[in-house]
Amino acid sequence: MPTVSTAESVTLLRAAGALQPEQELRNPDLLASRILPWWPPLPAMVKVPGLRLLVSRAIRKRAAAGMWYEVIRTKYMDDVLSASTAAGAAQVVLLGAGFDSRAHRMREEIGTASIFEVDQPHMSVRKQERVHALPQCDVRYLTANLEEDDLAEVLQKGGFDPTVRTVVLWSGVTPYLRAEGVETTLRWFARLAPGSSLVFDYCWQEILDGTAVIPEAEAVLRQVAARGEPWRWGIRRGRVEELLAAHRLQLVEDLESAAAQRRYLTRSDGSVQGPIWLFGGFVHARVPGQ
């Protein structure tokens, strides 16, 4: 979909996943189709009652791996968010928020926690133009480029308190950054209050440098490069804990995609839905001390 941005593409995948017939396998983002803009027309078709099921079936046929991957990514990050706020996190930060609808669809789980959405200026404007289609909630919209701006300063000016336990969701962002952007963000997170949590997804460095040849990964790399948004950063398989330790962060879980598939896409009869992208995983990290 060369004319569709990354934000629109992943939101379309969530919208299609939310329409799947098996409830236990659906994407929980039931607001995804509502926040999609009416242009470009391809993703907008999932908003039309007479067309949405046809679009969903077409995506399941042509982009099944991406759609199912988005189901497990959404569910995993929802779980970390819910567990973190239940354990006392009083601030929620969505980095590279895109068309994320969590602030609107998870109001019960978030409770009284303050919500900060950080994105590049043009994307933040587009998001704010769309939130009228969603249930109302109190969100502080902040703009930053993670490779150029001081994230701590941006958040502080927006009312963020680094001494308060926080949960940070960093969904679908790290592969697009250069190494310095990732490292700078990890250093920022490491200075937050003890007990704060960070969850992010990543690809294997091996698919970027060509030491692992995976046809599905090569196809994704071509697609994102064609949109002008190439993947630049990854983690070597099995090296997540080493990366976090360098920033004095605690690894709670490094969940590879295959294990996440079994956790979130297993039916009651024991069969596992797929395919999904199997060249990365999900990290839950914590600031130690509590």
From TrEMBL:
<keyword id="KW-0808">Transferase</keyword>
<comment type="function">
    <text>Exhibits S-adenosyl-L-methionine-dependent methyltransferase activity.</text>
</comment>
<dbReference type="Pfam" id="PF04072">
    <property type="entry name" value="LCM"/>
</dbReference>
<comment type="similarity">
    <text>Belongs to the UPF0677 family.</text>
</comment>
<keyword id="KW-0949">S-adenosyl-L-methionine</keyword>
<dbReference type="InterPro" id="IPR029063">
    <property type="entry name" value="SAM-dependent_MTases_sf"/>
</dbReference>
<dbReference type="GO" id="GO:0032259">
    <property type="term" value="P:methylation"/>
</dbReference>
<protein>
    <recommendedName>
        <fullName>S-adenosyl-L-methionine-dependent methyltransferase</fullName>
        <ecNumber>2.1.1.-</ecNumber>
    </recommendedName>
</protein>
<dbReference type="GO" id="GO:0008168">
    <property type="term" value="F:methyltransferase activity"/>
</dbReference>
<dbReference type="InterPro" id="IPR011610">
    <property type="entry name" value="SAM_mthyl_Trfase_ML2640-like"/>
</dbReference>
<keyword id="KW-0489">Methyltransferase</keyword>
<dbReference type="InterPro" id="IPR007213">
    <property type="entry name" value="Ppm1/Ppm2/Tcmp"/>
</dbReference>
